[in-house]
Structure formats: C-alpha cells, structure tokens
Design a protein that fits this description.
Layout lengths: L1 E4 L6 H10 L4 E4 L2 H5 L3 E4 L5 H10 L2 H11 L3 E5 L1 H4 L4 E2 L12 E5 L12 E6 L1 E2 L14 E6 L1 E5 L5 E7 L1 E9 L2 E4 L7 H12 L2
Length: 203
C-alpha cells in the first residue's frame, strides 16, 4: 500500500492511476494520522516552493511527515517539487524546506546567449550514477518526462543516484537511506514510470 499525500499540489490522480495499472494498492490522504502511520509515502508536487511548504504547514501534514520519515523510517518518494521540498531551501522562495536532504534548490542558469529554454519540458534520459532499488532491473536508455525550472544541488554527492543533461548535467534522482527523490514525473513516463513506481512499492 502506498499513501499519496494530498496537500493541494501535484498530479495525484495520475499517480494513483499509474499505481493501479501496475497492481499496487494506493490511497490518497491529507489526514495527518494516516500519513504518520504509513510505511510507503509519495509526496508529489507541481507549483511553487513556498506555496508547497505553506500548504504542508497549514494542513498539519508537516509534523506527520517528519514523524513518518525521520522517526518511523517510512519510505518516501518525492516527485518534482516534492523532491525539492525535501531540501533546505530554494531560490524560488524564502521559506525553509523540510531539510531531510542537505541540499539547496536552484534555478537553471544558462549563458545569456543560450537558446536553451526554461522550463525544461519533455522527455530526457536519466543516467544511473549509483545503483538503487528504484532503478532495479532497468536496462538500456532510460527516459522520463520532465517539467521544471529548478533542480537540486546536494552537498553529499554519495546521495546522487541519477543525473540528466539539459544544458549542463543536473541531479535528477537522489537517495538517502529511506528517502528517495526524482526530478522527473514517473506518472507521465509510461513504461519507465510504471517500473519505477512498482519498484518503490516493493521496497
């Protein structure tokens, strides 16, 4: 059973449908007690950093997430903004993040004459930097769907499990013990996303 956190942001329905396709039971919840007692949690996210942090606080989910992940060692997968919220701060806002990952979230920065567009939209390859269970049994070129203007810069390179090239190489997947994060959207990534979510459910 995977619990998808509903804090007002994210492709919740798409994630639930993708999990259903791979035979994984899922529930969507904004109930702090349910979240605190879950063993596998998905934190989705589409939107602005400060808005996401504010919603977690206002809904009472902030404390329950911390208890679930830090105290109870629940597995958690942060998707796009969901991963960014796990960092300490973001150039997009002023509020502090959850701070589970010693990292900051930064905006893409290209040369003034660059023709590379921001946001980064569309399919792109992910290079596995470190074997982890999310990428178990993947082979060949791995491609996922991206939609973002910001990416994370972790202090500890040992936590980097996947990178992607868009103008320059950026971190697209991380792992710190029970904490997983991906910058791409597995719920929009067809067979690759289905496999990744299935792997998460089997941790």
């Amino acid at each position: 059973m995977c619990l998808i956190v509903d804090y007002g942001l994210g492709n919740i329905g798409s994630i639930a449908n993708m999990l259903k396709k791979v035979g994984v039971a899922a529930t969507v919840s904004n109930n702090p007690n349910q979240i605190e007692n879950a063993s596998k949690i998905i934190l989705p996210g589409v939107g602005a950093f400060d808005n996401g942090i504010s919603n977690l606080h206002k809904s009472g989910i902030w404390e329950s997430l911390n208890n679930a992940v830090i105290k109870n060692s629940a597995y958690i997968l942060g998707i796009c903004l969901g991963m960014q919220l796990m960092t300490e701060s973001s150039e997009e806002g002023k509020l502090p993040g959850l701070g589970w990952i010693k990292a900051k979230t930064v905006r893409f920065s290209f040369d003034v004459n660059s023709k590379i567009r921001i946001p980064h939209f569309g399919w792109n390859s992910v290079l596995i930097e470190k074997e982890m269970n999310l990428f178990k049994e993947f082979s060949g070129e791995i491609r996922f769907y991206f939609a973002h203007s910001y990416h994370i810069l972790p202090d500890d390179t040992e936590q980097i499990s996947g990178t992607t090239k868009y103008g320059y190489e950026f971190v697209s997947a991380i792992q710190k013990k029970n904490i997983f994060g991906v910058q791409f959207h597995p719920e929009k990534s067809h067979k690759f996303g289905m496999k990744l979510l299935k792997n998460f459910s089997e941790l």
